[in-house]
Design a protein that fits this description.
Blueprint: H1 2-34, H2 38-63, H3 107-113, H4 128-141, H5 151-155, H6 170-193, H7 204-213, E1 222-224, E2 227-229, H8 233-252, H9 262-289, H10 299-323, H11 325-330, H12 334-347, H13 368-391
Antiparallel strand pairs: 1-2
Length: about 400
């Protein structure tokens, strides 16, 4: 009890000191304002009201998570989907065998690598991975405001980065986590999934989408380095949405390629496992070296970034289950893949109001980072098991 009273007393003294620190300069500014003429009072009043309105909008956007739903993959009818690029309603086609006689740059290689012209009225299946990638980006920048590039977020809290405070930064970290998974998927779509073998040409729509998604996450309309006007981050991400959907539209008209081979799935699973391993290491470092409990102002950033990654990968891996259903059925991996999806969904049940980074054996301050790291490692373990089975 004595320790608890000490903590409460410290918080009380801190709040009083903070109130005085804010009240003194505000009082001086108020006295100066009263001495000004009517015109200057009007100008300052308009500026203050405009600034207050910006802050109200900023706070609203950081606290309201529009269409946030851990069960969002349920809206996709994956159980009825076909392998991308296959004729709708037709029998599944096996992956084309490796043509060992094809020489890069020759007519034989070019003919093998390019999709055939579709017959009149022919319709092919789209890619669930491309669809979810576009929808997650739409969720980030259209259904919600992109927090990281908002002016007041860049300005910080009295010059201190919002990421170093316990306030108003959870949504930004979550969005960056989602975007990390989306960027990784865009790279895999360009390098392997959206082309036949490694010697065919890169899909132009996917290449543009990858470039747009790699743009800096905190760009506003004006910047200092380099100095001058800029295109804000959300504009690039909105362009990527159009590119991804254009690829899927071409895929539906049998004008594009999706190479649903086992080795491509192995590579995608391996990249995700590496991403999650890196995030787990970040959580481990914070949990072991900063046991500040409820007062660790960076713990929430780490937690919500990891949560955003898992949120995005839950949908993307459900989409991969659809796009690679033939491969998974052939390898008898549906059960293990379902287990991995269930573990991902279980991790998303963690939604603490305040993220605590206490010791692992603490009785008062839980270690949310350690618990999230446990979930991540379980998912990663499942991905490693899946990779091993696919390689057999």
């Amino acid at each position: 009890m004595r320790a608890l009273r000490g903590v409460v007393s410290f918080i009380g003294r801190f709040l009083v000191a903070l109130g005085r620190l804010i009240a003194v300069p505000l009082g001086a500014l108020w006295r100066l304002f009263l001495e000004l003429g009517l015109l200057w009072k009007g100008v300052i009043g308009v500026l203050v009201l405009g600034f207050a309105a910006l802050y109200v909008y900023f706070i609203w956007q950081t606290q309201v998570w529009t269409n946030f739903n851990p069960d969002y993959p349920a809206k996709y009818a994956y159980e009825k989907a076909q392998t991308p690029g296959e004729p709708v309603g037709g029998a599944p086609q096996p992956a084309p065998p490796e043509d060992t006689t094809a020489v890069p740059g020759t007519a034989n290689e070019s003919a093998r690598a390019q999709p055939q012209a579709p017959a009149a009225g022919k319709t092919c299946a789209p890619s669930a991975i491309a669809e979810v990638t576009a929808d997650l980006t739409d969720f980030n920048v259209n259904q919600n405001a992109w927090i990281s590039s908002m002016l007041l977020y860049k300005a910080g809290f009295f010059g201190l980065s919002w990421d170093r405070t316990p306030f108003l930064d959870n949504k930004a970290s979550f969005q960056r986590g989602v975007n990390a998974a989306v960027r990784r998927t865009a790279i895999e779509l360009v390098d392997s999934l959206g082309r036949l073998r490694g010697t065919s040409q890169i899909d132009s729509d996917l290449q543009k989408a990858r470039g747009n998604l790699q743009f800096a996450e905190d760009s506003w309309y004006f910047g200092l380095s380099p100095f001058g006007p800029k295109t804000p981050t959300p504009s690039y991400y909105r362009a990527a949405i159009k590119d991804l959907r254009a690829f899927n539209t071409r895929l539906e008209t049998c004008q594009a390629v999706f190479d649903a081979r086992a080795d491509n799935l192995i590579q995608y699973v391996d990249r995700i496992a590496n991403d999650l391993g890196s995030t787990s290491a970040i959580l481990k470092d914070r949990a072991e070296n900063y046991n500040a409990g409820w007062f660790d102002t960076r713990a929430d950033d780490r937690f919500w970034f990891a949560y955003g990654q898992l949120y995005a990968y839950y949908g993307l891996l459900r989409a991969a289950h659809s796009d690679f259903k033939g491969v998974l059925a052939e390898k008898h991996l549906d059960g293990l893949w379902n287990t991995m999806e269930q573990q991902l969904r279980a991790a998303l049940n963690m939604q603490p109001s305040i993220v605590s980074n206490g010791r692992e054996d603490a009785w008062f301050t839980p270690s949310h980072l350690t618990t999230m790291g446990f979930h991540i490692l379980r998912v990663r373990s499942n991905l490693v098991d899946i990779r091993q089975v696919l390689e057999r």
